[in-house]
Amino acid sequence: MTVGIVVVVIVVAVVIGVTVGMKQRNINNQLLSEGRMIKRDIDFMEKNYFYTSRIATYKQIYEKLDSSDLSGTGVSWNGKIGDIIFKSSLGWSARLAEVESDDENHKYLFHFTNWETYRGLPQNTTSMNVLLTAVEKCILSVDPTTKVTTTEMKLKTKTHFL
Known about the structure:
By secondary structure, the chain is α+β, with helices and mostly antiparallel strands. It is 37% helix and 29% strand. The longest helix is centred in the N-terminal third of the chain and has 33 residues, at 2-34.
């Protein structure tokens, strides 16, 4: 009898896992088809994104972000001259800052400042991807010739046993 209970528990767990996975896949496919998210590497949140533009001023980017669709991300944000902080109700935050500016170019840095993990895997990556896509679209809509480069972040991680 206990073997039967164990089998039922395992089957129920597998069914729940498959159902949740299929639901998330459908959500991701919808966001991809709507253009609100693009396919990225699994470790996209571990990178610094630099945007170098001849045209896009901080004020223009701020105004574009203010009118962008961030629904479903749980993101609130506030900004001051040269620096915008994004905070998600899902346990992550990000920053967009102007890091260089001269007569010819404006350079912006976007990076995720913290996020939650579960057993080493990042959580809530869909909403993070939607925000990054929105930021990229805002900057590129102001200046389509913006150069985008990425670098790996130097991360400090805390490991937990079990």
